[in-house]
Amino acid sequence: MIKFRRLLALAIPLAAFSLVSCDSKDYTIETINYQADGEGWLQFKTNDDDLMSKAFVHAPAVDDNSFANDSSWTATIQVKKLEGSIYSPFGLMFDYVDSDNYLALILRISGDYKIIQKLDGGYTKISEWSSASAIKGWEKTNTISLSFTPPGDASNPTSYGYFQMSVNDTQLSSDSGSNPTRLTLTAAAPTTSKIGFFVGTLDSDYESFPKYPSDQRFKVTVPFVYP
User: Fold this and answer.
1) How far are the Cα atoms of 54, 84, 159 from residue 199, in angstroms, in the given order?
2) Torsion of the alpha carbons at 144, 170, 112 and 215, rounded to the nearest 10
3) At 179, is the pLDDT very low, low, confident or very high (cuts 50, 70, 90)?
4) Residue 11 DSSP class
5) pLDDT of residue 5
6) How many Å separate Cα 51 from the centre of its chain?
7) pLDDT averaged over the chain?
8) Domains detected in the chain
9) How far is residue 105 CA from its own chain's centroid?
10) How many other CB atoms are there within 10 angstroms of residue 206's CB atom?
11) Would you call 220 helix, strand, or coil by DSSP?
């Protein structure tokens, strides 16, 4: 059984919308594409059938959102899901060069996570879905942290560096090798990259647009504050 979350109407910023009829009811078709919600979060929300089975990413356009591959760094974001399918993913985008090249740590309200990569416009999975009891449910804030150790570091025996990640202070496994908490790079990281946010919508087997929208909130807390 597909599970959805429906809340009372929320105050939202201006966004593109239209009206359609479904199940003898009229629903406003609306997409809010990473806009400030007036409460200190960035919001992504849609119930548009035309936007099913798609990925939506956003990299904050601020000077501090630039990470070098030759030094250690840590980034932290907070995310929460308010409405939608328990299976539609959202989370942290990292190693972002452009909309066709990035990595993402994605969560589901069902209590699991996965790491994916988009390379030259095509998606591949870095890890399978894995359960994580630390992932919080509806309306709850999930804190995702990511750290990068560059090549040449005393703790890093590889040539290209590695990432480590956690959710709500619980370290996640990302590799099946001898260091399962490390996402070890097998090629050089971009000279500089960005972090950001990821939302994925699913098909009609999982989403129930327009009745139940997909609605998420995001913010960056380290190393800069956004929005």
Assistant:
1) 8, 12, 31
2) -30
3) confident
4) -
5) 44
6) 17
7) 88
8) 4-222 (2.60.120.870)
9) 6
10) 17
11) strand
- CB-CB neighbours of 74 under 10 Å: 12
Q: How far, rounded to the nearest angstrom, does the alpha carbon of residue 24 sit from its chain's CA centroid?
A: 34
Stated pTM of the model: 0.87
Whether the CB-CB separation of 164 and 181 falls below 8 Å is answered with yes
Q: Largest alpha-carbon pair distance within the chain?
A: 65
Element (H, E) at 103: strand 101-108
| Mean pLDDT, residues 23-28 taken together | 75
Torsion of CA 142, 143, 149, 154, to 10 degrees: -110
pLDDT digits (tens, 9 = 90+) for 147-173: 999 987 666 666 788 899 999 999 998
Task: Say yes or no to pLDDT of 22 above 70.
Answer: no
CA distance 177 to 160: 16
The DSSP bridge partners found for residue 84 are 5
Phi first, then psi, for residue 107 (nearest 5°) are: -115, 160
In whole angstroms, what separates CA 212 from the centre of its chain? Answer: 20
Q: CA nearest 179: which of 159, 155, 160?
A: 155
Inter-residue contact 118 to 98 (CB < 8 Å): no
Pairing of strands 122-125, 112-119: antiparallel
Beta-carbon contacts of residue 194 (< 8 Å; ≥ 6 apart): 59, 60, 65, 66, 67, 94, 96, 97
Which residues, 6+ apart, have CB-to-CB distance to 60 below 8 Å?
194, 195, 196, 220, 224, 226, 227
pLDDT in tens, 87-132: 999 999 999 999 999 999 999 999 999 999 999 999 998 999 999 9
Q: Which helix (H) or strand (E) holds 168?
A: none
Two tokens at 87? 């299976």
* Token pair 């990035």 in the structure block, residue: 102
